[in-house]
Amino acid sequence: MMVRILSPAKINLFLRITGRRADGYHNLLSLMCRVGLFDEIRLRLASAPVRLECSDPGLPRGEANLAVRAALIFFEALGRPAGVEISLEKRIPVSAGLGGGSSNAASVLMGLNHAHGAPFSPRRLKRMARRLGADVPFFIGESPALASGIGDVLEPCPNLPMFHIILVCPPFAVSTAEVYGRLNLRLTNCPKQITKARFKTEGFDPRRHLCNDLETVTQALHPEILSVKRQLLDRGALGALMTGSGGAVFGLFRRARDARQAAGALAVAAGWRLFAVEPLSGPAALIRRG
Predict the structure, then answer these.
(1) Does a structural domain hold residue 56?
(2) What's the CATH number where 263 sits?
(3) How far apart are CA 145 and CA 282, in angstroms?
(4) Tens-place pLDDT, residues 186-238
(5) pLDDT by residue (tens digit) across 243-261?
């Protein structure tokens, strides 16, 4: 049996770091949304073991890859010997704050569950996903969602307005560990009065809510992030922000025509990649047989 999964990227429309925990993780409040930029995963069931082929030669093939670890965790829970050949076509830029690795892990869990006749509920899959990383459960549930805790406590946020999005992805990789290591919680730049309750009652407004506490840290390492934000705003974006720990930057536009015109006018450096995408709403439903 062959299962094909489109594995989407995500953006953080709001990211506030609320504190550091005793275990070294950080508590946060974030509004996350899946977007229409996809890796493609094909799963072919096998007797054993778990194997990965990937179009990106720089990514690990063993248990250091979240997609492989996701398969191992799934088969451990399944409780019987099994295997899978994973073919991963990478299109989401790596180490850009777009959640590609977490999305791939969630897609493998959902794809294997589909291929084996759905032995596990979405709640059980999310428990497996938490073992893989804080962002992984998001890719199994509803989008957009408000995330709290370390990012694994999720609540649907269905009233997000429709936007057309331009993603600008730099050629450099950003280390999430380094960004969090340099974060000074006393110098965060998000308005502290923004809470889950306010998002639910007021809805999302890019002119008031776009904010990322990690942006100033990553921007100090890569000043071109500020240049891209300014270009997007100068070309009509309602707002522009770095996503996650960076370095991808997105601009939000009301009309597709405005987004296309802005993309054509951006003066980006060699090696930068641009994508025109739209938000994905509702539950994950991107699995196909064959």
Answers:
(1) yes
(2) 3.30.70.890
(3) 10
(4) 777 776 667 777 777 777 888 888 999 999 999 999 999 999 999 999 999 99
(5) 999 999 999 999 999 999 9
Give a yes or no: residue 95 inside a domain: yes
State how far the Cα of 7 lies from the Cα of 87, in Å rounded to an integer.
12
For the record, the structure tokens of 31 come out as 């509004």
The answer for residues whose C-beta is within 8 angstroms of residue 255's C-beta and 6 or more apart is: 164
**Is residue 142 packed enough to be buried (19+ CB in 10 Å), middle (13-18) or exposed (0-12)?**
middle
On the CB side of 281, CA atoms within 13 Å amount to 7
Q: What is the reported pTM?
A: 0.94
β 2-20/211-212 pair status: parallel
Tell me if 286 is assigned to some domain. Answer: no
On whether the CB atoms of residues 24 and 58 are closer than 8 A, the answer is no
* DSSP conformation class of 93: P
What is each CA distance from 241 to 97, 256, 290, in whole angstroms? 11, 18, 38
Six token digits for residue 166 = 């331009």
In this predicted structure, which of 156-165, 197-206, 263-272 has the lowest mean pLDDT? 197-206
Average pLDDT (276-282) is: 91
pLDDT above 80 (res 31): yes
Q: How far is CA 260 from the centre of its chain?
A: 23
Task: Look at residues 102, 137, 157 and tell me which one is the last residue of a structural domain.
Answer: 157
**Residue ranges making up the domain that contains 171:** 164-280
Residues annotated as part of the active site: 10, 135
Q: What are phi and psi of 88, to 5 degrees?
A: -120, 115
Half-sphere exposure of 209 (CA within 13 A, CB side): 22
